[in-house]
Specification:
The complex is a heterodimer of chains A (about 250) and B (about 325).
Chain A (H helix, E strand, L loop, with lengths): L1 E5 L2 E3 L7 E2 L4 E2 L6 E3 L1 H18 L2 E7 L5 H10 L3 E6 L5 H12 L6 E5 L10 H8 L4 E11 L2 E8 L2 E8 L2 E5 L11 H9 L2 E5 L7 E7 L8 E2 L6 H9 L5
Parallel strand pairs in A: 1-6, 1-8, 6-7, 7-13, 8-12, 9-12
Antiparallel strand pairs in A: 2-5, 3-4, 9-10, 10-11
Chain B lengths: L2 H4 L4 E5 L9 H17 L2 E7 L4 H5 L5 E5 L7 H14 L2 E7 L2 H14 L2 E6 L9 E5 L4 E7 L4 E5 L14 E4 L10 E6 L12 E5 L9 H10 L3 E4 L1 H5 L20 E5 L5 H7 L4 E6 L12 E4 L2 H18 L1
Parallel strand pairs in B: 1-2, 1-4, 2-3, 3-9, 4-8, 5-8, 11-12, 11-13, 13-14, 14-15
Antiparallel strand pairs in B: 6-7
Helix pairs in contact in B: 4-5, 6-9
Classes of the chains: A alpha/beta (about 250), B alpha/beta (about 325).
The complex binds flavin-adenine dinucleotide and adenosine monophosphate.
């Protein structure tokens, strides 16, 4: 089975969020970057488990500049066979998808795994866009994924229910919590990652369909109103009469 | 015929889920969004939907026209994409509006890619004077204004962001008869998660963390939720230890919610937890530790033992319910 996993490079979950250039760019100075948790914990690890059980290869693809390479090496240390980096600073989610689709279109992948969303952009766009650009079916927000007899079976949480869906390969899947357990790379993995192939390819020509013109930070919260524990019931009254939310 | 009569006006397509017992609030929010854009730009609204909603419910929606594809569900995003793209062409759409829910998240980006349209995923405002639309980024820790550069624009609207405006009902209803191809994705089984309000749609959420000590203590949490007509949620370790089902886990790696009221009991307020709940309009925190970081993000706070505070809250909620 040929598996392609989309790996994005995002600020650590505890990173400070600040902007530069008149609030038009993220201030990455001093920020630690990680593999997007959905891509690492769920998409990549499930891809590796399927490969280990059924044979095949796991290739990762990242759209980004040379700064993303330590993140890509982390994915290789966890166990991917090889990696591809499309050398461009993506303009928007569509650009990422267009680059991935341009690479994947004639490679015959059986499974293309993306995360549910990036924790910086939060678009949930790239997976379904890749599926559309490759004219493939899409299993969204999967919490479990299995492959047998040329078919993928997934579970998804929808409207509080659990849905079991099935689809013939090839298919694009977006991966959410539940699909696999996090794997911590061991020393051997880290050493091996240094020499695993990381192919850098030029970007396909694309046009931006959207741009972010400005960022802003939410206004600071008003000071918290404290209620003594002995009068806890007063909270309910205030939520009703003052905040008017119940 | 004069050119005036043959000119097709621009239209706004609103894709909405009309299944279930009644039309969801998020659907009405998305419809309001589409109507406001149509009013501003002088166009009509065509609501595109699927499934088995009764004719009179569809006719009562405030759109110029409703087109319904019977006989399909939401599992196969390729079929829904073909449906929306076909109508967008026929209706000369300039905008296509979705709800940023499970279905919208799968179909809106596909439609945008198919029609090479720019997309705003998870809009929290209407377009401003310059046509820019705001959305959450960095898991709600910041917002971004996005400009769509294409003549056709796709927007998915984050639930609970746009107030519903009173509708003047009356739409003509048509059944879609085009060819949507065969579904590749099929639903094999649906397991009902039981009663209760689905978390993403809930206006009030009662959530609890490791401070509750063990799953056997959730009775009080559920009772408070019931009295407040709220959904229940939990922090990640609570779901990881199987004290509560995984779909209740909120935060950066769980469900992101923005209810009107979020009550957090025995949750420390780690940054990854806040990332999923900081869009809530009002936050109330109950924690025995006065230094718990959650108090910094709270509107109301009680420093106290959950096991003593919860019974008081339940009693007060019962009293409130009895009075109204
Ligand atoms: C990459 C990453 C992603 C993550 N994603 C998420 C996520 O999506 N969601 C999430 O929730 N977490 C997430 N986490 C975990 C997060 O960092 C915290 O560990 C977690 O939120 C803590 O859960 P908690 O508040 O229930 O437990 P604790 O941190 O143990 O806090 C328990 C709280 O209960 C209070 N307490 C104890 N006893 C009582 C009592 N009797 N009455 C009242 N209060 C009491 C304590 O004072 C304390 O504040 C993530 C972590 C990482 C690294
Ligand atoms: N620059 C990128 N390179 C490779 N994959 C990406 C990139 N950006 C996003 N993805 C993938 O697409 C998923 C959804 O991203 P998003 O649409 O930004 O929420 C992520 O979880 C990744 O799997």
């Amino acid at each position: 089975m040929k598996i392609l996993v989309l790996i994005s490079h995002v600020p650590d979950t505890t990173a400070r969020i600040a902007f530069t250039n008149d609030n038009t760019a993220y201030d990455a100075s001093g920020v630690q970057f990680i593999v997007n948790p959905y891509d690492e914990w769920y998409a990549l690890v499930r891809g590796l488990e399927l490969k280990e059980a059924q044979g095949g290869t796991v290739t990762t693809i990242t759209v980004g500049g040379a700064v993303t390479e330590p993140t890509i090496r982390k994915a290789l240390a966890i166990g991917a066979d090889d990696a591809v980096r499309v050398d461009t600073e993506p303009k928007d989610g569509h650009d990422v998808a267009a680059q991935v689709a341009a690479f994947a279109k004639d490679k015959g992948y059986d499974l293309i795994l993306a995360g549910k969303e990036t924790i910086d952009h939060n678009g949930s766009q790239v997976g379904p866009m890749v599926a559309e650009l490759l004219d493939l079916p899409f299993l969204s927000l999967a919490t479990k994924l299995d492959v047998a007899d040329g078919k993928a079976t997934a579970e998804r949480d929808v409207r509080g229910d659990v849905e079991v869906v099935e689809c013939p390969l090839p298919v694009v899947v977006s991966c959410a919590k539940g699909m696999a357990e996090q794997r911590i790379p061991n020393m051997r993995g880290i050493m091996a990652a240094r020499t695993k192939p990381l192919q850098v390819i030029p970007a396909a020509a694309t046009e931006a369909l959207s741009t972010t013109v400005k960022f802003e930070l939410p206004p600071p919260k008003q000071a918290v109103k404290m209620i003594p524990a002995e009068e806890a019931g007063k909270l309910i009254e205030l939520l009703h009469s003052e905040a008017k939310v119940i | 015929m004069g050119s005036i009569n043959t000119r097709i006006n621009m239209s706004v397509i609103v894709f909405a889920d009309t299944r279930g017992e009644k039309v969801a609030k998020s659907t009405l929010e998305t419809l309001t969004y589409g109507r406001k854009i149509a009013a501003k730009e002088g166009g009509t609204v065509t609501l595109v939907t699927f499934g088995d909603a009764p004719q009179d419910r569809l006719g009562a929606l405030d759109a110029n026209k409703v087109v319904v594809a019977r006989n399909i569900g939401d599992a196969d995003s390729q079929q829904l994409t073909r449906l929306v793209a076909d109508l967008a062409g026929k209706e000369n759409a300039k905008w296509i509006i979705f709800t940023h829910d499970d279905t919208g998240k799968a179909v809106a980006p596909r439609v945008a890619a198919k029609l090479q349209a720019g997309e705003v995923a998870g809009a929290i405002t209407l377009p401003n004077e310059q046509g820019h639309i705001k959305r959450n980024v960095f898991s709600g820790k910041a917002q971004a204004w996005v400009e769509l550069k294409t003549p056709l624009k796709v927007v998915s609207v984050l639930p609970n962001s746009i107030p519903v405006e009173a509708a003047s009902p009356g739409a003509s209803v048509e059944e879609y008869s085009g060819d949507l191809g065969v579904a590749k994705v099929t639903v094999k089984e649906t397991r009902k998660a039981g009663e209760g309000i689905p978390l993403p749609e809930a206006e009030v959420v009662v959530s609890a963390g490791r401070g509750m000590k063990g799953p056997e203590n959730w009775g009080m949490v559920e009772e408070l939720a019931k009295e407040l007509h709220a959904a229940t949620a939990c922090s990640r370790p609570v779901a990881d230890m199987d004290w509560r089902p995984h779909h209740e886990h909120v935060g950066q790696t769980g469900v992101a919610i923005r209810p009107n009221l979020y009550i957090a009991i025995g949750i420390s307020g780690a940054i990854q937890h806040l990332a999923g709940v900081n869009g809530s309009k009002v936050i109330a925190v109950i924690n025995s530790d006065p230094e718990a970081p959650f108090f910094k993000s709270a509107d109301y706070g009680i420093v106290g033992d959950a096991f003593e505070v919860l019974p008081k809250l339940i009693e007060a909620a019962k009293k409130l319910n009895a009075e109204r």
